[in-house]
Amino acid sequence: MANTQQIKELRERIGAGVLDCKKALEEAKGDITTAMEILRKQGLAKAEKRVAREVRQGLIEAYIHTGGRIGALVELNCETDFVANTDELKELAHNLALQVAATEPSFIGSDDAPGEVDPSEACLLHQPFIKDPQKTVQEIITETIAKVGENIRVRRFARFELGK
């Protein structure tokens, strides 16, 4: 049986609801790491169902690197203006702008890239996430989809570097 402290800790770490955390902890026999994996898998399943939903709202995030020599703009779309104003989406947009500034991707995903391009380096969605290299950018987006309950899509991005 999961105790209140374990449920609270799991909620803070993964952002799932109380009942989902309780069920995952019971299934994992109190092991938080296993419960997190269970919830991630459930989140992925929920996120896959949302992929076909239309995204017309969102936000544009700008990032200018210290010194003003590199900048990035990212347009991130979601389903409603309510989610567009959440801290989760704003944080994701900021992190994606950082990613674009730091890694200089050429394409959003492999669908946008010509066949001869290695998608892991050139495509934003396939790159290791700079704040957690064990995950790809797409996995970070999928986790946010599971948290906010809406489809999220990178519509476009631009990177600027002084003199290039």
How would you describe this structure to a colleague?
- This protein is an alpha+beta fold and 164 residues long.
- It has two domains: 4-50, Ubiquitin-associated (UBA) domain (Helicase, Ruva Protein, domain 3), CATH 1.10.8.10; 57-161, Tetrahydropterin Synthase, Chain A, CATH 3.30.479.
- 47% of the residues lie in helices and 20% in strands.
- The protein has seven helices and five strands.
- The chain has helices spanning 4-14, 18-27, 32-50, 81-84, 87-103, 119-122, 137-148, and strands at 57-64, 70-78, 128-129, 132-136, 153-161.
- Strands 1-2-5 form a three-stranded antiparallel beta sheet. Strands 3-4 form a two-stranded antiparallel sheet.
- Helix 1 crosses helix 2, helix 3 (32-50) crosses helix 7 (137-148) and helix 5 (87-103) runs antiparallel to helix 7 (137-148).
- It is elongated.
- The mean pLDDT is 85.
